[in-house]
Protein backbone atom coordinates (compact mmCIF):
# COMPACT_ATOMS: atom_id res chain seq x y z
CA UNK A 1 0.00 0.00 0.00
CA UNK A 2 1.54 3.11 -1.16
CA UNK A 3 1.25 6.57 0.16
CA UNK A 4 2.89 9.96 -0.44
CA UNK A 5 4.39 12.29 2.08
CA UNK A 6 4.14 16.00 1.27
CA UNK A 7 6.89 17.82 3.15
CA UNK A 8 6.74 21.54 3.87
CA UNK A 9 9.44 23.75 5.29
CA UNK A 10 9.11 24.83 8.85
CA UNK A 11 8.02 28.44 9.10
CA UNK A 12 8.28 30.62 12.16
CA UNK A 13 4.76 31.21 13.38
CA UNK A 14 5.77 34.34 15.24
CA UNK A 15 7.16 35.99 12.08
CA UNK A 16 4.83 34.89 9.33
CA UNK A 17 1.42 34.18 10.90
CA UNK A 18 -1.39 31.80 10.29
CA UNK A 19 -2.15 33.01 6.74
CA UNK A 20 1.10 31.57 5.43
CA UNK A 21 0.41 28.25 7.17
CA UNK A 22 -2.96 28.00 5.50
CA UNK A 23 -1.44 28.84 2.12
CA UNK A 24 1.30 26.26 2.61
CA UNK A 25 -1.22 23.61 3.53
CA UNK A 26 -3.31 24.34 0.45
CA UNK A 27 -0.26 23.98 -1.77
CA UNK A 28 0.76 20.74 -0.04
CA UNK A 29 -2.64 19.18 -0.51
CA UNK A 30 -2.82 20.30 -4.13
CA UNK A 31 0.61 18.83 -4.86
CA UNK A 32 -0.26 15.58 -3.09
CA UNK A 33 -3.40 15.09 -5.17
CA UNK A 34 -1.36 15.17 -8.39
CA UNK A 35 1.16 12.51 -7.40
CA UNK A 36 1.15 8.71 -7.27
CA UNK A 37 1.90 6.90 -3.97
CA UNK A 38 5.16 5.76 -2.43
CA UNK A 39 5.78 3.01 0.13
CA UNK A 40 6.37 5.29 3.10
CA UNK A 41 2.75 5.21 4.34
CA UNK A 42 3.13 8.79 5.62
CA UNK A 43 1.06 10.69 3.07
CA UNK A 44 -2.33 11.15 4.52
CA UNK A 45 -1.08 11.74 8.01
CA UNK A 46 1.10 14.67 6.97
CA UNK A 47 -1.49 16.19 4.64
CA UNK A 48 -3.88 16.67 7.55
CA UNK A 49 -1.27 17.75 10.10
CA UNK A 50 -2.32 21.36 10.63
CA UNK A 51 -6.02 20.52 10.56
CA UNK A 52 -5.44 17.84 13.17
CA UNK A 53 -4.03 20.15 15.81
CA UNK A 54 -6.70 21.51 18.17
CA UNK A 55 -6.96 25.09 19.31
CA UNK A 56 -4.89 25.90 22.37
CA UNK A 57 -6.37 24.03 25.32
CA UNK A 58 -9.00 22.25 23.17
CA UNK A 59 -9.61 18.53 22.78
CA UNK A 60 -8.29 16.60 19.81
CA UNK A 61 -11.22 14.51 18.63
CA UNK A 62 -10.71 10.95 17.33
CA UNK A 63 -13.69 9.12 15.85
CA UNK A 64 -14.08 5.39 16.53
CA UNK A 65 -16.70 3.49 14.52
CA UNK A 66 -17.25 -0.18 15.35
CA UNK A 67 -19.58 -2.45 13.38
CA UNK A 68 -21.84 -4.48 15.67
CA UNK A 69 -22.63 -5.87 19.10
CA UNK A 70 -23.48 -9.50 18.27
CA UNK A 71 -19.78 -10.27 18.59
CA UNK A 72 -18.92 -9.62 22.24
CA UNK A 73 -15.38 -8.39 21.64
CA UNK A 74 -16.17 -4.92 20.30
CA UNK A 75 -17.84 -3.47 23.38
CA UNK A 76 -15.97 -5.62 25.90
CA UNK A 77 -12.43 -5.30 24.52
CA UNK A 78 -11.77 -3.24 21.39
CA UNK A 79 -13.40 -0.01 22.54
CA UNK A 80 -12.06 0.10 26.13
CA UNK A 81 -8.54 -0.93 25.13
CA UNK A 82 -8.45 1.71 22.37
CA UNK A 83 -9.71 4.47 24.66
CA UNK A 84 -7.35 3.48 27.46
CA UNK A 85 -4.24 3.56 25.28
CA UNK A 86 -5.18 6.80 23.54
CA UNK A 87 -5.71 8.54 26.87
CA UNK A 88 -2.29 7.32 28.02
CA UNK A 89 -0.46 8.87 25.07
CA UNK A 90 -2.78 11.83 24.49
CA UNK A 91 -4.54 13.06 27.66
CA UNK A 92 -6.27 15.83 25.68
CA UNK A 93 -7.68 13.42 23.11
CA UNK A 94 -11.42 12.85 23.11
CA UNK A 95 -12.86 9.68 21.57
CA UNK A 96 -16.20 10.03 19.81
CA UNK A 97 -17.59 6.50 19.71
CA UNK A 98 -20.48 4.88 17.82
CA UNK A 99 -21.54 1.29 17.09
CA UNK A 100 -23.46 0.65 13.88
CA UNK A 101 -25.42 -2.44 15.01
CA UNK A 102 -24.50 -4.18 11.74
CA UNK A 103 -26.18 -1.48 9.59
CA UNK A 104 -24.09 0.07 6.84
CA UNK A 105 -26.39 3.08 6.38
CA UNK A 106 -26.29 3.75 10.12
CA UNK A 107 -22.49 3.69 10.06
CA UNK A 108 -22.51 6.15 7.16
CA UNK A 109 -24.67 8.55 9.18
CA UNK A 110 -22.46 8.12 12.25
CA UNK A 111 -19.34 8.91 10.23
CA UNK A 112 -20.91 12.02 8.72
CA UNK A 113 -21.91 13.21 12.19
CA UNK A 114 -18.36 12.71 13.47
CA UNK A 115 -16.90 14.64 10.55
CA UNK A 116 -19.35 17.47 11.22
CA UNK A 117 -18.28 17.41 14.88
CA UNK A 118 -14.67 18.00 13.88
CA UNK A 119 -12.89 14.67 14.31
CA UNK A 120 -9.30 14.85 13.13
CA UNK A 121 -8.92 11.11 12.51
CA UNK A 122 -11.54 8.49 11.70
CA UNK A 123 -10.98 4.90 12.87
CA UNK A 124 -13.49 2.56 11.23
CA UNK A 125 -14.21 -1.15 11.38
CA UNK A 126 -16.66 -1.26 8.48
CA UNK A 127 -19.98 -3.09 8.49
CA UNK A 128 -19.66 -3.40 4.72
CA UNK A 129 -16.17 -2.87 3.32
CA UNK A 130 -17.38 -1.77 -0.11
CA UNK A 131 -19.97 0.64 1.26
CA UNK A 132 -17.37 2.08 3.63
CA UNK A 133 -15.50 3.41 0.59
CA UNK A 134 -17.96 6.33 0.53
CA UNK A 135 -17.14 7.10 4.17
CA UNK A 136 -13.43 7.04 3.44
CA UNK A 137 -13.86 9.30 0.41
CA UNK A 138 -15.90 11.82 2.39
CA UNK A 139 -13.34 11.88 5.18
CA UNK A 140 -10.52 12.39 2.71
CA UNK A 141 -12.36 15.28 1.05
CA UNK A 142 -12.43 16.89 4.51
CA UNK A 143 -8.68 16.26 4.98
CA UNK A 144 -9.41 13.70 7.71
CA UNK A 145 -7.13 10.64 7.59
CA UNK A 146 -8.72 7.20 7.97
CA UNK A 147 -7.54 4.07 9.77
CA UNK A 148 -9.22 0.83 8.72
CA UNK A 149 -9.48 -1.22 11.91
CA UNK A 150 -9.79 -5.04 11.83
CA UNK A 151 -11.56 -5.07 8.43
CA UNK A 152 -10.07 -3.46 5.37
CA UNK A 153 -12.31 -0.61 4.18
CA UNK A 154 -12.70 0.37 0.55
CA UNK A 155 -11.40 3.66 -0.78
CA UNK A 156 -8.14 5.52 -0.15
CA UNK A 157 -7.66 4.70 3.53
CA UNK A 158 -4.35 5.68 5.13
CA UNK A 159 -3.52 2.76 7.41
CA UNK A 160 -4.89 -0.64 8.37
CA UNK A 161 -4.40 -2.83 11.44
CA UNK A 162 -5.66 -6.39 11.68
CA UNK A 163 -4.46 -9.97 11.85
CA UNK A 164 -3.10 -12.26 9.18
CA UNK A 165 -6.57 -13.48 8.35
CA UNK A 166 -5.65 -16.17 5.84
CA UNK A 167 -3.39 -17.64 8.49
CA UNK A 168 -6.29 -17.54 10.96
CA UNK A 169 -8.30 -19.64 8.50
CA UNK A 170 -5.39 -22.04 8.10
CA UNK A 171 -5.09 -22.40 11.86
CA UNK A 172 -8.77 -23.26 12.07
CA UNK A 173 -8.51 -25.74 9.21
CA UNK A 174 -5.37 -27.38 10.60
CA UNK A 175 -6.94 -27.75 14.04
CA UNK A 176 -10.10 -29.30 12.67
CA UNK A 177 -8.15 -31.68 10.42
CA UNK A 178 -5.97 -32.78 13.34
CA UNK A 179 -9.06 -33.45 15.46
CA UNK A 180 -10.68 -35.47 12.69
CA UNK A 181 -7.55 -37.57 12.19
CA UNK A 182 -7.59 -38.50 15.86
CA UNK A 183 -10.86 -40.29 15.18
CA UNK A 184 -9.64 -42.13 12.09
CA UNK A 185 -9.99 -41.40 8.40
CA UNK A 186 -10.92 -37.69 8.02
CA UNK A 187 -13.07 -38.69 5.03
CA UNK A 188 -15.09 -41.25 6.99
CA UNK A 189 -17.99 -38.77 7.20
CA UNK A 190 -18.82 -35.19 6.24
CA UNK A 191 -18.14 -31.80 7.72
CA UNK A 192 -20.32 -28.69 7.75
CA UNK A 193 -18.73 -25.34 6.88
CA UNK A 194 -20.27 -22.16 8.33
CA UNK A 195 -18.40 -19.12 7.05
CA UNK A 196 -18.76 -15.49 8.09
CA UNK A 197 -20.55 -12.59 6.48
CA UNK A 198 -20.27 -12.26 2.69
CA UNK A 199 -19.84 -8.47 3.07
CA UNK A 200 -16.79 -8.85 5.33
CA UNK A 201 -13.45 -9.16 3.48
CA UNK A 202 -11.95 -10.86 6.54
CA UNK A 203 -14.51 -13.64 6.19
CA UNK A 204 -13.28 -14.25 2.65
CA UNK A 205 -9.71 -14.48 3.93
CA UNK A 206 -10.65 -16.96 6.69
CA UNK A 207 -12.52 -19.00 4.10
CA UNK A 208 -9.57 -19.01 1.71
CA UNK A 209 -7.14 -20.08 4.43
CA UNK A 210 -9.47 -22.84 5.66
CA UNK A 211 -10.04 -24.25 2.17
CA UNK A 212 -6.30 -24.26 1.47
CA UNK A 213 -5.97 -26.82 4.28
CA UNK A 214 -9.17 -28.86 4.09
CA UNK A 215 -9.84 -29.18 0.36
CA UNK A 216 -9.08 -32.73 -0.71
CA UNK A 217 -8.57 -33.84 2.89
CA UNK A 218 -12.20 -33.95 4.02
CA UNK A 219 -15.68 -34.30 2.58
CA UNK A 220 -17.64 -31.05 2.83
CA UNK A 221 -21.32 -31.93 3.08
CA UNK A 222 -22.79 -28.42 3.31
CA UNK A 223 -21.26 -24.94 3.21
CA UNK A 224 -22.87 -21.61 4.08
CA UNK A 225 -22.00 -17.91 4.19
CA UNK A 226 -23.64 -16.35 7.24
CA UNK A 227 -25.10 -12.83 6.85
CA UNK A 228 -24.01 -10.43 9.60
CA UNK A 229 -22.12 -13.25 11.37
CA UNK A 230 -25.47 -13.98 13.02
CA UNK A 231 -25.47 -16.82 15.59
CA UNK A 232 -29.21 -17.25 14.98
CA UNK A 233 -28.62 -17.65 11.25
CA UNK A 234 -25.77 -20.08 11.92
CA UNK A 235 -28.13 -22.16 14.02
CA UNK A 236 -30.62 -22.28 11.12
CA UNK A 237 -27.84 -23.24 8.71
CA UNK A 238 -26.73 -26.05 11.00
CA UNK A 239 -30.33 -27.26 11.29
CA UNK A 240 -30.49 -27.38 7.48
CA UNK A 241 -27.19 -29.27 7.31
CA UNK A 242 -28.34 -31.86 9.86
CA UNK A 243 -31.49 -32.45 7.80
CA UNK A 244 -29.51 -32.71 4.55
CA UNK A 245 -26.62 -34.86 5.79
CA UNK A 246 -27.99 -36.69 8.79
CA UNK A 247 -26.54 -36.21 12.25
CA UNK A 248 -24.78 -39.59 12.24
CA UNK A 249 -22.76 -38.56 9.18
CA UNK A 250 -21.46 -35.25 10.55
CA UNK A 251 -17.95 -35.65 11.96
CA UNK A 252 -16.86 -32.00 12.23
CA UNK A 253 -18.03 -28.40 11.93
CA UNK A 254 -15.96 -25.48 10.69
CA UNK A 255 -17.32 -22.24 12.15
CA UNK A 256 -15.56 -19.01 11.26
CA UNK A 257 -16.03 -17.41 14.69
CA UNK A 258 -17.30 -18.12 18.19
CA UNK A 259 -20.70 -16.56 17.56
CA UNK A 260 -21.46 -18.84 14.64
CA UNK A 261 -20.04 -21.74 16.66
CA UNK A 262 -22.54 -21.02 19.43
CA UNK A 263 -25.38 -21.23 16.89
CA UNK A 264 -24.11 -24.50 15.40
CA UNK A 265 -23.66 -26.06 18.83
CA UNK A 266 -27.17 -25.00 19.86
CA UNK A 267 -28.56 -26.68 16.72
CA UNK A 268 -26.71 -29.91 17.42
CA UNK A 269 -27.83 -29.98 21.04
CA UNK A 270 -31.38 -29.37 19.87
CA UNK A 271 -31.06 -32.25 17.41
CA UNK A 272 -30.03 -34.60 20.19
CA UNK A 273 -26.38 -35.27 19.32
CA UNK A 274 -25.08 -37.76 21.87
CA UNK A 275 -21.53 -36.45 21.39
CA UNK A 276 -20.66 -33.19 19.71
CA UNK A 277 -18.13 -33.37 16.85
CA UNK A 278 -15.17 -30.98 16.92
CA UNK A 279 -16.26 -27.39 16.27
CA UNK A 280 -13.92 -24.51 15.43
CA UNK A 281 -14.25 -20.85 16.37
CA UNK A 282 -12.45 -17.53 16.58
CA UNK A 283 -12.15 -14.47 18.86
CA UNK A 284 -11.69 -16.32 22.18
CA UNK A 285 -15.00 -15.03 23.55
CA UNK A 286 -15.53 -15.88 27.21
CA UNK A 287 -18.50 -18.11 26.41
CA UNK A 288 -16.38 -19.96 23.83
CA UNK A 289 -13.55 -20.54 26.32
CA UNK A 290 -16.12 -21.96 28.72
CA UNK A 291 -17.50 -24.24 25.99
CA UNK A 292 -13.96 -25.40 25.21
CA UNK A 293 -13.27 -26.21 28.86
CA UNK A 294 -16.57 -28.11 28.99
CA UNK A 295 -15.76 -30.07 25.81
CA UNK A 296 -18.54 -28.54 23.69
CA UNK A 297 -16.30 -26.55 21.33
CA UNK A 298 -12.97 -27.91 20.16
CA UNK A 299 -10.97 -24.73 19.60
CA UNK A 300 -10.96 -20.99 19.06
CA UNK A 301 -8.41 -18.60 17.64
CA UNK A 302 -7.07 -16.16 20.19
CA UNK A 303 -6.30 -12.82 18.63
CA UNK A 304 -4.59 -10.37 20.94
CA UNK A 305 -7.32 -7.75 20.66
CA UNK A 306 -5.67 -5.57 23.27
CA UNK A 307 -2.52 -5.34 21.15
CA UNK A 308 -4.60 -4.57 18.06
CA UNK A 309 -6.45 -1.78 19.86
CA UNK A 310 -3.18 -0.38 21.23
CA UNK A 311 -1.62 -0.29 17.75
CA UNK A 312 -4.77 1.41 16.42
CA UNK A 313 -4.63 4.07 19.15
CA UNK A 314 -0.95 4.74 18.44
CA UNK A 315 -1.61 4.92 14.71
CA UNK A 316 -4.52 7.31 15.22
CA UNK A 317 -2.43 9.60 17.40
CA UNK A 318 0.42 9.67 14.88
CA UNK A 319 -2.06 10.51 12.11
CA UNK A 320 -3.59 13.27 14.23
CA UNK A 321 -0.12 14.72 14.74
CA UNK A 322 0.58 14.59 11.00
CA UNK A 323 3.32 12.02 11.46
CA UNK A 324 3.94 8.62 9.85
CA UNK A 325 3.36 5.57 12.04
CA UNK A 326 6.73 3.93 12.69
CA UNK A 327 6.23 1.80 15.82
CA UNK A 328 5.85 -1.46 13.89
CA UNK A 329 6.62 -2.68 10.42
CA UNK A 330 3.84 -2.25 7.88
CA UNK A 331 3.15 -4.33 4.79
CA UNK A 332 1.13 -3.25 1.73
CA UNK A 333 -2.37 -4.72 1.45
CA UNK A 334 -4.38 -3.75 -1.60
CA UNK A 335 -8.05 -2.95 -1.02
CA UNK A 336 -8.94 -2.54 -4.70
CA UNK A 337 -8.18 1.17 -4.66
CA UNK A 338 -4.60 1.40 -3.41
CA UNK A 339 -1.99 -0.33 -1.31
CA UNK A 340 -2.68 0.41 2.35
CA UNK A 341 0.23 0.30 4.84
CA UNK A 342 -0.92 -2.41 7.25
CA UNK A 343 0.17 -3.92 10.53
CA UNK A 344 -0.80 -7.60 10.59
CA UNK A 345 -0.65 -9.21 14.02
CA UNK A 346 -0.30 -12.89 14.79
CA UNK A 347 -2.86 -15.22 16.36
CA UNK A 348 -2.79 -18.59 18.12
CA UNK A 349 -4.97 -21.62 18.67
CA UNK A 350 -6.68 -22.21 22.02
CA UNK A 351 -7.84 -25.68 23.01
CA UNK A 352 -8.69 -27.22 26.35
CA UNK A 353 -5.02 -28.12 26.79
CA UNK A 354 -3.62 -24.58 26.63
CA UNK A 355 -6.31 -22.27 28.06
CA UNK A 356 -4.07 -21.58 31.03
CA UNK A 357 -1.06 -20.78 28.84
CA UNK A 358 -2.87 -18.39 26.48
CA UNK A 359 -5.86 -16.30 27.54
CA UNK A 360 -5.20 -16.66 31.27
CA UNK A 361 -1.45 -16.09 30.98
CA UNK A 362 -2.10 -12.90 28.99
CA UNK A 363 -4.67 -11.72 31.56
CA UNK A 364 -7.30 -11.68 28.85
CA UNK A 365 -9.48 -13.62 31.29
CA UNK A 366 -8.92 -14.84 34.83
CA UNK A 367 -9.61 -18.40 35.94
CA UNK A 368 -12.49 -17.22 38.18
CA UNK A 369 -14.10 -15.49 35.20
CA UNK A 370 -14.00 -18.68 33.17
CA UNK A 371 -14.77 -21.17 35.91
CA UNK A 372 -18.11 -19.90 37.11
CA UNK A 373 -21.06 -22.05 38.16
CA UNK A 374 -21.41 -25.22 36.12
CA UNK A 375 -17.96 -24.74 34.54
CA UNK A 376 -16.07 -25.10 37.84
CA UNK A 377 -15.87 -28.87 37.72
CA UNK A 378 -14.80 -28.89 34.04
CA UNK A 379 -12.12 -26.32 34.87
CA UNK A 380 -10.67 -28.58 37.56
CA UNK A 381 -10.63 -31.52 35.17
CA UNK A 382 -8.92 -29.41 32.49
CA UNK A 383 -6.36 -28.07 34.98
CA UNK A 384 -7.57 -24.49 34.64
CA UNK A 385 -8.19 -24.23 38.40
Automatic annotation (TrEMBL):
<keyword id="KW-0732">Signal</keyword>
<dbReference type="Pfam" id="PF13407">
    <property type="entry name" value="Peripla_BP_4"/>
</dbReference>
<protein>
    <submittedName>
        <fullName>Sugar ABC transporter substrate-binding protein</fullName>
    </submittedName>
</protein>
<comment type="similarity">
    <text>Belongs to the bacterial solute-binding protein 2 family.</text>
</comment>
<dbReference type="InterPro" id="IPR025997">
    <property type="entry name" value="SBP_2_dom"/>
</dbReference>
<feature type="signal peptide">
    <location>
        <begin position="1"/>
        <end position="27"/>
    </location>
</feature>
<dbReference type="InterPro" id="IPR050555">
    <property type="entry name" value="Bact_Solute-Bind_Prot2"/>
</dbReference>
<dbReference type="InterPro" id="IPR028082">
    <property type="entry name" value="Peripla_BP_I"/>
</dbReference>
<feature type="domain" description="Periplasmic binding protein">
    <location>
        <begin position="62"/>
        <end position="323"/>
    </location>
</feature>
Amino acid sequence: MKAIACHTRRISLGLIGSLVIATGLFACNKDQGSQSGSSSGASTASSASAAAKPAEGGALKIGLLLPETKTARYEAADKPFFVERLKQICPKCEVLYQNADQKADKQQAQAESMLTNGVKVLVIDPVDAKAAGAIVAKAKSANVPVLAYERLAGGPADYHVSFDNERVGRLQGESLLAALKKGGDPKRGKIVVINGSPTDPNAASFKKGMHSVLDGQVNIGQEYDTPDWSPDQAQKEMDQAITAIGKKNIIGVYCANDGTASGAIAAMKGAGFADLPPVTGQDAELAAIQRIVAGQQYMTVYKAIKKEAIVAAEMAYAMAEGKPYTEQKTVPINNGTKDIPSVLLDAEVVTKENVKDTVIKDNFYTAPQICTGTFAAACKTAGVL
